[in-house]
Here is the input.
Amino acid sequence: MQFRLFFIFLFCFHLSFCANQVVNLQGKENGFKSVAEFASVYIDNDNTITIQNILDNQFEFESLNSPSPNFDFTTSSYWIKFSLKNSSDREKFFIETARPLTNIADLYFFNSVGEIQVLKNGDESPFALREIKHRKIIFPIELAKTQVTDFYLHLKCDGEVLIVPIKVWTPEAFENQDYKEQFIMGSYYGMLIFVIIIYFFFYVALKEKSFLYYVIYVISLFVFQFAIDGYGFQYLFPNAIWFANHSVLFFAGITVIFVVKYAQEFLQLNTWTPILNRTFNVFIWATASLTILSLIDGPTYKYCFPLINITSLISTLTILGTILWAIKQNRKVSKLFLTAFIFLIVGAVIFILGNFNLIEPSFFTVQGIKLGSALEVVFLSLTMANKFSEIQQEKEKAQADLLIQMDQANEKLEAQVIERTAEINEQKDILAEQHDEIIDSINYAKGIQDSILPEDAKIKEHLPNSFVLFRPKDIVSGDFYWMDFKDDTTYFTAADCTGHGVPGGFVSMVGANGLNRCVNEYDLKKPSDILDRLTLLVQDAFKDRKDGMDMSICAYQEKSKILQWAGAHNPMFIVSRSEPKVSEGTEFKSLELDGNEFALHDFKPNKQPVANYDYSISFSNHEIKMNTGDRIYLLTDGFPDQFGGSKGKKFMTKNLKKLLLENHSKPFNQMHDILNTTIENWMKEADAEQIDDICIFGVEI
Here is the structure.
């Protein structure tokens, strides 16, 4: 009987021990009441339990026994139960719990009428839905005097560390504490902003990569800490829930990448230790990969939390080891740089060990990375300021050395200039003499070429209504015109030789001489026969070379008004009042303009040159019955191919045809000036130079 009573006593004692202790609120205005160590927890690993299950079933809760429990990296749900009794005259209190980056933080309790009430919080709901618009997870509650209320806190993370301090504040005490924290936070973030601005301008001034990497590192550190402290969700992306959940891990990865990149560039690892340089690259790419993977929801995101923390710790320790190794190798490394990374490592180690729950949660485990990074940024900024000063001094020294070298070089250069000037003047005199000789030779060649061109008087004698627009590109032309009269027949042509200048002039000599032989020596009558024989003469003159000419040749009998024509690539235009009567097989296209009684007829030549040609056939001969007033134009491609105008384009054959047709009613003796003025204005509008020889032979019947 005594044994049974003793057993019942122990069982009751156990139940009373495991039950939540009621936390008595005194309503003090100068602090908070810690509740977590008096609370109990039930872990829902499957994330299936609801508040109704908690209320309906007696789950076995376990005592927390810690003022700030750390549940490590987790994706489970946690139900925390605690009881509060209001022993003060106040009714309004604030409950602060969990870190700002907790996904779900819902507080359940019975209100004054016995209904279950829920206050939702966490960064899985838009910021605007929070009862108190604060970066922290704060719940406002009301308790009547002597009222005892049970609270159920539902917490859940998606892979990050879950730390659960539970503090009950009076509104006044919370506001006082928040004011102090805001001052500290403002100083911290203000310092980072100042560093970002100053060292960005340093980078702009020096174009030194280490300054750029340092600025990006401080920016990413700023956003990373901003997100951890809850400011990111509050001010930057209050409605972007997905990015709010991922921002801490994403910017943590970016911070690690650029602190490693900054150290790599500052220590110039690529110049003295390729192995360590490659090791740093491995850290960079590994962290970059984890950062990208952290954007994928599910298990991948969960495992990225501890992996990025581990990578961050190893990278930072490697940087410190590299600095110490550089000092051992007698390399110049700033002690401020070493001190900065010591502070960063101490803060990072405390922060990461706290995340892994290897040391007891405290102010230093939560704010360790912030304290370490603040001191690190201070010392790194001093380091970069010294580097800026060193670079400036090096530049000034380099400029001074350069000035000395320039003075020496100038003295040497002046002597060389005097010597070279004498040589140049001598060479200039020689070149001037040679230039004069060359120009004299070319002018002499022009005189020879002019001698083979028909005289104006001879042309006017047999073709009284005619003109020749002849504009060589150079002194000597590759285009030429030719005319002869024999047995009541006038022969005339406009030809375009391969090349221009002196080479084209040589070819034109062969062409003009060949035409004279065809008419006077071989007594050829038809233009097609003349082109066939001229082709043989050109082939014989140039052997296996492809040099030759394009031309359009006419034979006109005044009495019968019969025009015979043959063309090698070059067409013939006839402007007449009526459609021409032509021999069988003659092809032409006509252009008519509205309001103009005349039409321009474009006669198509053989598509082969007067030269060595793989697919040569006999040229076609065409007869056209001419009428008084008809105008004939033979031309080369120089006029339509000339660049100019407002857009710098070619004049084009179609525009030349319109020009001839539009001016047909004007006296024929004005056509030379009309064409010449038109092409000059065309080139002048685009400030273009003449690109080819121009030749147009016009005849009016």
